[in-house]
Amino acid sequence: xxxxxxxxxxxxxxxxxxxxxxxxxxxxxxxxxxxxxxxxxxxxxxxxxxxxxxxxxxxxxxxxxxxxxxxxxxxxxxxxxxxxxxxxxxxxxxxxxxxxxxxxxxxxxxxxxxxxxxxxxxxxxxxxxxxxxxxxxxxxxxxxxxxxxxxxxxxxxxxxxxxxxxxxxxxxxxxxxxxxxxxxxxxxxxxxxxxxxxxxxxxxxxxxxxxxxxxxxxxxxxxxxxxxxxxxxxxxxxxxxxxx
Length: 244
What we know:
The protein is an alpha/beta fold. It contains nine helices and eight strands.
């Protein structure tokens, strides 16, 4: 499998990329800047491909998508890149994975990093600042992303789309006192992106440590899904293939 892992310089993304390489997969890693890409030298030395771009800038996301489509497009994407706070929460956590999903031509599996914080999200699109002019709410962003994952599963039966809660793990985002297991935090994403056993070949699910969980009720609200897709298509000018 050829797998793109976004946000892979450290934490869960780095762990997923390292695990995929150990398993013999063809991996493409991602860094926000050229300076941060230096941390990925041990992985690129093992043959990993590299894309560089700030997901807070949608022009960079468009460039990365075009670059990947011009070469060997990935078979799967682990949408790991994310921010906890600040103005770029919506651009990085929602707009970037939406654009990559809509524009990449090859992937047949998408794994989206959600969070238990999505339960605190508000299923309202009124006044959402998609461009990052002001700080965004993390819980809202993860609710939108989890809902998008479910909508993709509904509209694109040829694609496996799942959302994963990796737990509250001790990464830079989670902090050193986070109580969950960092090692377990990346394994479900890798499994859903690559495994061929029947349990992994499902779509439209929300997972925690390879167990299915019931997400926020709004995630499977078809009207909310459609309103979200309409909002994202209008905001970006890029419709999701297969949507109305």
